[in-house]
Amino acid sequence: MIAGSGDFRAAPALLKFALDRDQGTSECAAGAIQRLLSGISPLDLVSLDQSARKMGGWESDLDRKSRWASRTIRRIRALGASATSVAGIASFHQSGFTREAATRELARLSDGGSLPFLLIRANDWVDPVRKTARRAIQKSLPSRTPDDLVRSLPLILRLRECGRDDHEGLVSALLKRLVADASKPAVATGITSADRAISRGCLTIAMEQKWFTHCRGALTSSDSVVRLLAARFLLTALPEEGAWTLAGTLAADSWPGVREVALRTVIERSPRDLRARLEAGLLDRAGTIRQLAGYYAQKMLNLDLAAYYRTQIAKGHVIAGSVLGLGEHGTVEDALPLLPCLEHSMPSIQRFALRSMARLDLAGSAPLLSAALQSDLPGVSNEAREILRDHSEFADRRALETALLSDSPIHVRLNALQVLSRVGKWPSIRTLLLAVAADPDALLEAATSRIEHWLRRFNSSAARATNDELLEIRERLREARGRLSDRLCDAVESCLSRP
């Protein structure tokens, strides 16, 4: 059951059972340790080393003398395939004597699984343990496969940042093996690793060695940072023709950071077909790309950005970039041409149209925003909520209150509640008390949370309620009793009674 949990933090607690005199108990616990550590990343292993000594559970008959007896070593060696994992966990022990003995046992084991533990112990705070680990690594280096080194690469590079000893000679010796031609396949595989530390470490090696094929392979990585690093390297190192071609390919990358590097390369190194590339950037979904393209389009092409976006919308080229771009560079009059976008088949275009219209003409777009908040499409409703929440003075309070108390979809009612809770000190508590008496329970929970926030913020505003407001709020409070806790009801009543 423990092994099936996948929580590697449980491994240290199993050590004393793995060393138990009963063979069945020992084998079961050792197997569990091995399974728990089978999928752990190298840097998670460092985290486990740092936290394991705080967990307790180390005590056993075998380590009370602060050193391992020879029979303990025999028990570990009898564990077969699990021996490395058990010895590795033992190398995290509180006792320096035990860590040193475990490190010696790891040195004896020749499988690749011992290397990560040895690399961690190479920076142990006890000098004999460090020296034992360093000697073991250096002695076993000729027999280590490139795959072993790649799997432990984050721990190798980590030693450069550790200050308990000068590790540069050891790190250089390990990396020397990885930059050899025989290690190229392992490094290429490492670049595609799901472990980001391994992937980025392998890419660093490939860039330092100018292995262009490896770097091109990194452009398909699922890790955006790997793609970005590879793109920067290739776009700088390749000849102008190759950089221009690659920039065109990278312009379609899913991450804006990569697309930005590609666009900068075209602008700075290969300005052929510049207008087409800049116009593609002006219509990019990401604001950073539109901003970069807009700056150079004005500087190098003397392009009127507002007119450009107006033309795109007029032509029916309604995409995220054109709608958002017009909102960024247009004038109040440009809000009207965006009105049809509120009926677009794509909810994202409706959202972007709301955002741009509010940016261009917030007061004129206020009725549309209140109506959009009542949309059956959660994304559209949420967009309107975000705008009106920061500009609640433009909200149609009557329409939103009607939506709040109606049988509208729950996302509409919750969004209306969020906006109405920001309309003013006294109107907001009135609305919140109204919501308490409404169904469903999700609305009650949200309203209760907002009332608690209102109470905490009560003294942040000096606004005074009128007599009519106080009378209505007290009436709503009476209706809310029974659904709202007595504590909150009494707290609200106390606020109403203040002079």
Query: What's the helical proportion of residues?
Result: 55-70%
Question: Count of DSSP helices?
Answer: 31
Largest sheet: none
Mean pLDDT: 90
Oligomer category: single chain
How much of the sequence lies in strands comes to under 5%
Distance N to C terminus: 63 Å
Structural class: mainly alpha
- Total number of beta strands: 0
In short:
With 499 residues, the protein is mainly α. It is built from 31 helices and no strands. The chain has helices at residues 2-5, 15-18, 23-37, 42-52, 70-77, 83-90, 96-108, 114-121, 127-140, 146-151, 153-158, 168-178, 184-191, 196-208, 212-218, 224-237, 240-250, 256-268, 274-282, 287-301, 305-314, 320-329, 347-360, 362-373, 378-390, 397-404, 410-420, 425-436, 441-456, 467-480, 486-496.
3D architecture notes:
The chain is mainly alpha-helical and 499 residues long. Among the domains are: 1-143; 424-499. It is 66% helix and 0% strand. The chain has helices spanning 2-5, 15-18, 23-37, 42-52, 70-77, 83-90, 96-108, 114-121, 127-140, 146-151, 153-158, 168-178, 184-191, 196-208, 212-218, 224-237, 240-250, 256-268, 274-282, 287-301, 305-314, 320-329, 347-360, 362-373, 378-390, 397-404, 410-420, 425-436, 441-456, 467-480, 486-496. Helix 23 (347-360) runs antiparallel to helix 24 (362-373), helix 25 (378-390) packs parallel to helix 27 and helix 26 (397-404) packs across helix 27. The chain is flat. The chain starts with a helix and ends with a helix. Mean pLDDT is 90; it is low at 61-67.
